[in-house]
Specification:
The structure holds three protein chains of three kinds. Chain A contains five helices and five strands. Chain A is an alpha+beta fold. In chain A, strands 2-1-5-3-4 form a five-stranded mixed β-sheet, with helices on both faces. In chain A, helix 2 packs across helix 5. Chain A is globular. Chain A starts with a strand and ends with a helix. Chain B is of the alpha+beta class. Chain B is built from twelve helices and twelve strands. A five-stranded antiparallel β-sheet of chain B has the order 4-5-8-6-7. In chain B, strands 9-10-11-12 form a four-stranded antiparallel β-sheet, with helices on both faces. The longest helix of chain B has 20 residues. By secondary structure, chain C is of the alpha+beta class. Chain C contains 18 helices and 29 strands. The longest helix of chain C is centred in the last third of the chain and has 25 residues. Classes of the chains: A alpha+beta, B alpha+beta, C alpha+beta. At the A-C interface, helix 2, helix 3, helix 4 and helix 5 of A face helix 1 and helix 16 of C.
Chain lengths: 158, 286, 772
Amino acid sequence: MTYRFVVNGDPVEVEVPGMRRLLDVLREDLSLTGTKEGCGEGECGACSVLLDGMVVDSCLVPVCQVEGSSVETVEGLADGAALNDLQTAFLETGGAQCGICTPGMLLAGEAFLASGASATDAAIREAIAGNLCRCTGYTKIVEAIALAAQRRSALQVE
Amino acid sequence: MPVEPPVVSPRTLPEAYALLAAEAYRPVAGGTDLLVQITGEMGEPPERVLDIWRLDELRGIRVESDALVIGALTTYGEIRRSPLVGEFLPAFAEAAATIGAVQIQNRGTIGGNAVNASPAGDMLPLLLACDARLVAGSAGGERVIGAADFWPAYRRTALAPNELLLRISIPLVPARTVRYRKIGTRRAQAISKVVMALAWESGDDSRAAWNNVHLALGSVAAVPIRAPRTEAVLENAPPTEATADRAASSLADEISPIDDVRSSADYRRAVAARVLHRLVRDEGHW
Amino acid sequence: MTRTLPPATRPPVAPEALILTPGATLPGRAASRSPLRREGPAKLIGLAQYADDLVFPGAWYGATVRSTEPHARLLAIDLDEAYDWTKVVVVTAADIPGDNVVATIRDDQPVLVPIGGEIRHQAEALCLLAAADRSTLREARRHLTIRTEPLPPVFDPLESTEEFSHVVVERGDLEVGFAEAELVIEGTYRVGHQEQLYIENQAMIAVPREDGGVTVHGSCQCPYYIHRALKRSLDLTDIQAVVVQAETGGGFGGKEEYPSIIALHAALLARKAGRPVRMIYDRHEDLSATTKRHPAVIRHRTGVTRDGRLVAQEIDVVMDGGAYCTLTPVVLSRGVLHAGGPYRCANVRITGRAMATNTPPNGAFRGFGAPQVEFAAEMQVNRIAEALDISPLELRRRWAFREGDITPTGQVLRESVAAVEVLEAAAEASDFARHAEQTRRAREARQSGARVASGIGVALGWHGAGFTGSGEVHIGGVASVELTDGGVVRILTAQTEMGQGTKTIFPQLVAAELGLEQAEVEVAPQDTSIVPDSGPTVASRTAMVVGGLIITAARRLRAEVESVTGGQFAQTYGAFAKEHGGRRFDERFVPYPNIHFDDATYRGDAYPAFGWACAVAQVEVDLDTGEVSVRDVVSADDAGRIIHPILAEGQVEGGTLQAIGYATIEEIKLVDGRYLNDRLATYLIPTALDAPRIQAILVESPFSGAPHGAKGLGELPMDVGAPAVVAAIHDATGVWIHDLPATPERILAAMTGAPTPPPPGVSAPGSKRGPA
C-alpha cells in the first residue's frame, strides 16, 4: 500500500505494508534514524514522536493510521545546526548523557511545552513519565524542560 | 523483528461490518496492545488486522438520558480531560490517568482495554462496578452486553467474531459514589498488581449506611471480577471500623489470586483486603 | 585538604552560570568554564550514529538460536531438509576457526555450544543464522530443531559445589575481638539480580575485510576486549581485527564483557556470508541473555562493646556467578575488599566464594560487587545502632575511617580519606538529625489505622578507586597525546564515551595543560586501528588513571615544543608542526609510588585510594500497601577532584536513581533458570515520577598519585543508595528488610508477620524437568 503523510513539514509517500510500525518506516524507509527503539512495546518512550501534535510511541503506531497525518521527529527540531531552545537547554543543564533517550525526551518535552501547562516539577515529571532514562536520574532533564519553558514564556511576554 | 500481517482500513462502519462478515479479523484501535503482539515474541501474531482507527462514529463522550456514553475509540487522554467525565464519573478520569503515561494515554482506548480482556485491564473493574453496558455492533445490528457478562473467560470476550465494540454506556445513578485504586509497581507505565473499583449509594451523611454496593477487582483472577460475598458484607452497613474489618477479612477469603512475575498471591490477597479497608476508612473519616 | 563544592547548576541556569566558582586554578580544575558536552549537539539533533543507525549496503540480519533449558547436553542441530537453506547462512561451533572460547578470565565460556557439548544456562547461544531480510530469518528459525538431553540443574549458589573463586581477608584476631565484645549481632542479607538497562540494546555489526579479517562496529565499553576476543576465536592478527565503537547508549558495565560475544557472533556470520551482518538485539533478547549484577548472600557476625566500639567483624560473602566465570573473580574480590564498610575494626575476617549455577552468567555492573556487600554492611551498622540505642549517624561518625586507619588488608589510609566529610555534608544538607527526631516522634505517636509513614535513613560507603590490586599494572594501559603534522592536537585513547563524559573531560584536561581552548583539542575515534590500548572503560578509572596519563603526555608535548620554540605552547605549536612535523607522546601507566598489593595473600594496598560516599534518603511508606515513595535523596560523594561539575552531578544523580531502583523495584524472578522479567513491561526501572529530588554534593579530597587529584566517581552513589533507602523504610515502619529489592511484598509481609517471600535471585525449579 502507499501511504502519504508529512514528516517534519515535508510530504512523504511510502510503499510499505500497512502494519509496519511508524518507527520502522521512519528509520528504515525514510532513513530518519534519530528516532530510537528501546523496547518495542511502548514502555521506554525512546521512539516518541509527535503525531498531529500528540506525543506517541512510534513503535505502537501502524503506518496505516498515519495516512494524512503530520509527524514530527527529533530531526525536525533544530534549524540546521542551530539547536532550538529546548535542545539548547538540554545541552546547558546536562540533560543529555548517553543520548539514546534524548530524542524521545525532547519530543515529550515539546508536547509538554506546547500544552501550555505550568512548568512545575510535578507536571514536567508526569509529562516525561513515559520516557525512561537510565543515566541522569531525570534531575537535569526536568531542569532543562523548566529552563526552556521559562525562556519561552519570557519570549511571549516580550 | 515485527511481523506485518495484512491490514484493511475501512472508512465507515458498514464497510467494517462487511469485512467482518466475510473473514475473521483482529481489530486494531490505538495499537497499544496489538502492536506489542506483532513483535512475534508473545506467541503468534494475528493473521489479518482490521484497522478501525478511522471510524469516527466510535469516538466521543456524551450524556444520553441517564447514562454517560463513551465511544469505544475514546482514548484515555480524552477521558482524563473530558469535563463530562470529570463531572459525572471522576473515578474514570482517575483510572485513565494511571494507565501507561502520556504516550499510551494518547493512543490507548477504553474499547481496546475492554476487548483486549486482560485480567489486569485498568478500566475494567470500573465498568463492572458501575454496571456498564457494552454495545456491540455487526451487519446484523446492535446488541447490549452487560459488563458482568462481557469477560466470560481468560482473555475472552462475549463479542462474536463478526462484532465490533461500539461504545460503552455507564448508567448515571444519583447519590452513587465510585472509588478507584490501582496498586502497581511504579507510578507510571505499570501494569497493576491489584486494581479495585468500589461503587455504592448513600446519603450525604458520611456515617450513613451504604446501599447497592458493587466491588470489582482486576489482577486477582483470570478475568476481572465482582466480589459478591464482600459486597453483601458492605451492603446496608455504615463505613465504620467494624464494617471495614469484616469486609477486608471477607475479601481476603473471597479472592484466589496467583503468583506471577508482577506479584504474589499472598500480597495480592492481603493488599486487596487492606486497600478495601482503607477505602472504607477514608469514607468514614476515621 | 577536603572541600565541598557548591551546587553547580541548580536552580536552572543561564549559560553564563556555567562559569565555575573560584578554584579554577586548582590542579585538575582544567578550565574556568565547564565545556558543554562535546558530542551533545549531535545527540540532540538526532544525528549521533548508534550501531543500529549505521548503514552498510548489502548487510544481512543475524540472529542467535538459544537454549531453552538450564542444563543439558547438546545432541544435534537439525536443519529441515525440505527448507531451502541457500538463502540463509548457518554458523555452528564447527565454523569457529580459532579457539571456541570467549576470552575473559577463564576459558570456560564457548562462543557457541559445540555438538556434544554442555548447555549450562537458559538463552545460551547454540548456533547463528543470517539472512537478507528478517522474514527469511524468522522462517529459517522455524526449520531448525535443537535436540538435547537434559541434565540436572543447580540454581542455589549455597548448594553449588562448583567454585569460580574464593578469597579470604583477615586482620587481627577474631577470637580476641569476640571475647571483648559485649554484644554480638548476626544478620543474613540477600540481594538479587539487577539489569544494567542501558536504553540502547546491545548491538554489533561485522564487516568482512579484504585482508581476511573483520571490522566490527558496535556499542561497547572496551574495544580492546573485543579485539582480543576476535583474534583468539577467529585466529586473526592484530591488524586483521578492527573494532570501532559506535555512539553508545549507556553501558553501566553491561557493555564491558558481553559485547565480545555479540561481536564474535556477528563476525562469524559476516565471514561466512561474505557480507556485513547486523546483530542488533531487541530488548527481550538483551534482557534474557546478557549479564546482570551478581546475586549474593552475605552473612555478618559483628562484635561491639556496650559503649559502641566495633571490635570484631566476621563476614561471609557468597556470590552467584551464573553459568560461566566471566569477570566473577574480580567482582568477588572487590566485594570482599569492601564488605566491612568504611569502618575501623581491629579484628576482621571476610571470606568470599563465587559459585556456579545454571543461570545466565552475571558480570560487570556499576559498583562491581560493592553495592551488594555495602548494602549488607550498612544494614548491619543500622541494626547495631538500634541495639545500642545510638543514632545511626553518630555510630558512623565514631567508626568511620580517618587518615592513618588500617583496612582489613592492612592498607594504611595515608591520604584522601573523606568518610567523615561526606557523612557530615550529607547529614547537614538533609538536616538529618531534625528529620530523624520528627520521624521518631511520629512513629511513637502512631495509631492503628495510620495511612502513611515517613522515614529517613543514612548510609556511608567507600569505593576503591580504579582497578583492584595490581590490575592497573597488569593492563599496562597506554594513552597518547599528539601534535599532528597538520598542527592539530589530538588525544588517542581507547576510552569510550557512553554518556559519562569522556569526550568532554579529556580535551578539557589536555587543553588546560597546553593553555588551549578545549575546542582546539581533538579526540581520536575509539577505533583499534587508530588508538592505543589504554585499558577498558570500567571501574571509574577513565578520569583518574587515563586522565592522568594524558595530562602527563600533554606536559611532555608542551615541554618539547616550548624547548624548541622558546615560546608559549599555545602561541607556537602551529609553527612548530609546520617546521618540525608532528610529535606523539605515548604514556604508559607506571605504578603509583608506595602502593603495593599481594594478590596471593590479599595483603597490602588494595586500591591506590578510595572514594567516599554518603546518602541520606527520605521515604514515605504506605502502611496499607507497603508501597515506598522515595522523596528526597542527598548524596555526598568524594571523587578527589571534580573536573566538570555538571557531568559529575549527572553521575551522582543517575547512580543514585539506579541504586533506588535496586533498593525498591528492580527484581528478576527465575523459573527453571530462566528470567521471567525479560521484557520492559516486567523489568521495571524508576520513571521520572518515581525519582526523588536528588541533591548531589561534590566533595573534593584529592589523591596525590594522580596529577589532577581525581579518583573515580561513577560507582560511589550506587554503593550507598540502597542501604539508605532501606534504613529509611525501617525508620518509617519499624521493620528491617534483609533482602533486596525491598518490595511492597517483602515490606507488607514483615509488617504483618506474614511468611517472607522467597529469597531474591534464586530460581524456582522448572515444572517439566526429567528425562526427555
